[in-house]
Amino acid sequence: xxxxxxxxxxxxxxxxxxxxxxxxxxxxxxxxxxxxxxxxxxxxxxxxxxxxxxxxxxxxxx
Length: 62
Hints:
The protein is an all-alpha fold. It has helices spanning 2-20, 26-40, 45-58. The radius of gyration is 12 Å and the shape is globular.
């Protein structure tokens, strides 16, 4: 749960910055997509959670 809240905050801040500076790139679209999945907790959220957990576990030191 703590990782989900942290990811939600991180993606929210990134999305806010991207919107503020009008950085309309593929990266901005990915951040917006991930933010939406975490915020809405749709049926695709468990798959996104698994991917994000795998990415988190792949980073050394976690």
